[in-house]
């Protein structure tokens, strides 16, 4: 069988699909991958790929992504709960060998910065109800379907498919179809930098991708020009009668370090090199770096190791801006972990047929690291001054339950920590108990009593 016969057999096996039908290879969203507010799929897909390539190849992009992750995750984020059943599930879910959540956090945070969104999938074991988490790249999710009239209630997600392949849809826990099959994988969606009315997030690098490319091109041009500056041209000036002899003598240029003897008034050598005016060009590079820092998430030139014009005041201002951004990002990331954990637990209850109390985000406690420890000394000094003020106030108005509650709230506030209402009530109850014991079980209010001060 010759090649032409084989080609005819292959051609006969090709099935032609009419345009406009399913799997025609062109049935893709023509405009948006979400709502009309979202970017069209072609633009979003290109942006996601560009952000990923920038992270791979551009040191400044990698520095920004790594900086955000190092602050948000820090030494680690841990999830727990006061609910006994939920706490037991969290320990199994978090440390399961097929989950290993502690090792996923850095990767997820990097992806959140690069893509602006995360699509984790819960694959549930029908035997024990345990869910295993796998994340799908945002560049593979080309369409988000939501409930009519409420774009925040997402129902399903379509993954990209090749020509001739069947559409692949991932179901959301909010979808109506999940009630029919409790063991189908569930996809969750978390996004940052999302405008009102949009369902897709945007990369933290989106605003600076063009400037990263311009700075790379500018820097490459400077490298080429500086490389050319190392090449020079010798111009030899000599009397006319010596030109023929010199051409033969220096047919091959002398090696570096060669000593050339010439008669006084004979040939004269001069090296010609390009004049780059590098001092003027350095201002252009700095201007581009400022655009990158301005468009970055709370970054400054100090974060890129450039502190020539920085002082303590400017560093503090830039640090405060970065801290506020990172606190907001860390708060969202921790909420995402709490929501993911509560969803996995509720599915565990459904698969196992347990009638325990269903979990909400409020039932999950996420312990997160400090963004900055520089203000610990200032907080300690503020707390010390507060204790003295409260003791003086107690000497004036006397001890009372209202004063204890007021003092506890100020104490926690000056420490720079946040606690829930439940935790505050537990602390206040402990103060009441200790005060009652010291007073012999008598009244705990009124001026002039013999109760101990609020803080010793």
Notes on the structure:
The protein has 456 residues and is of the alpha+beta class. Among the domains are: 3-70 and 86-205, no CATH class; 376-438, no CATH class. Helix content is 46%, strand content 12%. It contains 12 helices and 11 strands. The chain has helices at 3-12, 41-57, 59-73, 84-95, 101-115, 209-229, 243-249, 278-295, 312-352, 376-397, 401-415, 421-438, and strands at 78-80, 117-124, 131-136, 141-147, 150-159, 168-171, 186-187, 190-191, 233-237, 268-272, 365-367. Strands 2, 3, 7 and 8 form a 4-stranded antiparallel β-sheet that branches. A 3-stranded antiparallel β-sheet has the order 4-5-6, with no helix packed on it. The longest helix has 41 residues, at 312-352. It starts with a helix and ends in an 18-residue tail after the last helix. The model is unreliable at 24-30 and 442-456 (pLDDT under 50).
Indicate the mean pLDDT.
78
The rounded Rg comes to 34 Å
Percent strand: 5-15%
* Unreliable parts: 24-30, 442-456
H/E series, N to C? HHHEHHEEEEEEEHEHEHHEHHH
Walk me through the topology:
Layout: H1 3-12, H2 41-57, H3 59-73, E1 78-80, H4 84-95, H5 101-115, E2 117-124, E3 131-136, E4 141-147, E5 150-159, E6 168-171, E7 186-187, E8 190-191, H6 209-229, E9 233-237, H7 243-249, E10 268-272, H8 278-295, H9 312-352, E11 365-367, H10 376-397, H11 401-415, H12 421-438
Helix pairs in contact: 2-3, 3-5, 3-9, 6-8, 10-11, 11-12
In short:
The chain is of the alpha+beta class. The protein has 12 helices and 11 strands.
């Amino acid at each position: 069988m010759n090649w032409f016969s084989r080609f005819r057999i292959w051609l006969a096996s090709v099935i032609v699909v009419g345009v406009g039908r399913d799997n025609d290879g062109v049935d893709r969203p023509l405009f948006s991958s979400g709502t009309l507010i979202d970017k069209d799929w072609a633009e979003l897909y290109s942006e996601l790929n560009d952000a990923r390539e920038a992270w791979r190849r551009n040191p400044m992009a990698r520095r920004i992504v790594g900086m955000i992750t190092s602050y948000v995750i820090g030494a680690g984020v841990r999830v727990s709960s006061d609910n006994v059943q939920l706490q037991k599930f969290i320990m199994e879910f978090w440390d399961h060998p097929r989950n290993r959540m502690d090792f996923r956090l850095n990767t997820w945070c990097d992806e959140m910065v690069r893509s602006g969104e995360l699509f984790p999938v819960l694959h549930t074991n029908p035997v024990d109800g345990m869910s295993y988490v796998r994340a799908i790249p945002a560049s593979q999710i080309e369409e988000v379907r939501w409930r009519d009239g409420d774009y925040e209630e997402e129902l399903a997600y379509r993954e990209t498919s090749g020509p001739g392949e069947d559409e692949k849809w991932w179901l959301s826990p909010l979808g109506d179809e999940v009630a029919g099959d409790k063991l189908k994988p569930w996809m969750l969606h978390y996004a940052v930098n999302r405008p009102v009315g949009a369902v897709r997030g945007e990369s933290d690098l989106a605003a600076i991708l063009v400037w990263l490319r311009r700075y790379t091109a500018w820097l490459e041009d400077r490298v080429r020009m500086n490389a050319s500056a190392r090449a020079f041209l010798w111009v030899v000036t000599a009397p006319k009668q010596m030109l023929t002899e010199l051409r033969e003598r220096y047919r091959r240029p002398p090696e570096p370090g060669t000593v050339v003897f010439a008669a006084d008034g004979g040939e004269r050598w001069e090296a010609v090199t390009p004049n780059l005016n590098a001092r003027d060009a350095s201002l252009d590079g700095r201007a581009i770096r400022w655009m990158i820092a301005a468009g970055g998430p709370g970054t400054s030139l100090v974060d890129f190791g450039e502190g020539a014009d920085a002082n303590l005041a400017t560093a503090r201002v830039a640090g405060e801006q970065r801290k506020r951004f990172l606190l907001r990002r860390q708060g969202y990331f921790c909420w995402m972990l709490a929501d993911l954990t509560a969803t996995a637990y509720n599915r565990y209850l459904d698969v196992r047929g347990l009638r325990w109390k269903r979990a909400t985000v409020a039932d999950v406690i996420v312990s997160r690291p400090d963004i900055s420890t520089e203000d610990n000394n200032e907080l300690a000094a503020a707390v010390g001054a507060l204790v003295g003020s409260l003791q003086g106030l107690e000497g004036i108005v006397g001890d009372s339950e209202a004063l204890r509650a007021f003092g506890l709230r100020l104490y926690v506030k000056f420490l720079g920590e946040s606690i829930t209402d439940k935790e505050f009530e537990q602390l206040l109850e402990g103060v009441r108990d200790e005060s009652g014991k010291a007073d012999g079980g008598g009244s705990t209010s009124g001026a002039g009593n013999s109760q101990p001060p609020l803080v010793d």
